[in-house]
Design brief:
7-stranded mixed sheet; 251 residues; single chain; globular; 7 helices; 13 strands; Spore Coat Polysaccharide Biosynthesis Protein SpsA, Chain A
Length: 251
Amino acid sequence: MTVRLSAIVIARNEARNIEACLDSLAFCDERIVVDGGSEDGTAALAAAKGAKVTVATEWRGFGPQKNLALSLATGEWVLSIDADERVSETLAREVRQAITEGLSNAYEMPRLSTFCGRPMRHSGWYPDYVLRLFRRGLARFSDDLVHERVVFDGPVGRLKEPLIHHPVLRLEDSLSRMDRYSTARAEMIVQSGRRVWFFTGIVRGWWTFVQTYFIRLGFLDGREGFLLAVANAEGTYYRYMKAWLKGRSRG
């Protein structure tokens, strides 16, 4: 008896990514896309690829959007993939084998990310294990606005083949990503009630660069390793500065 596998993807203005992402998920029994009100035709492109598309015009954050996608899945197993991620043929075979054997109810896999075209094997970016495969009904996503995670209570198996991730194709993508994520993370800091001072961003930004470039061996990733360390430092700096400004305006 074949075990049914549902792939779920959330997307918002991912026209340049969604087709390749869905092509890499062709081995799944159903592909579900929750579109967060895209303005670039993402939903139409996904539908043309045969995906089941639901348009949720109100963006509620990454966690809530993924829980919506999860609620639409009908397979016994669920594979959660972001629009800028790709499942290789070898990973697809490993996923199929894992759900057929059913030795665990959830699996994590290493993720290999690229930065401006270069695979980053240091800088804290690899192996970057992420839990993305699980039995439906036994897991859900946290409600975090950004950097959501799968909430699962039990032992987690581990796959060997990496999930390919292309978060930053150009430096401009890094700047846009930094702005979006720092804003969301700043809001999370404010909501948590944590106290942030003006110099918090300066100190934490500097420390992030040291961690990325030196402690996590980012210098071994070449010039792109330096660019990534700077981008990480800036993202941290702006996250805390935005939180400080938000806290000051509310105080």
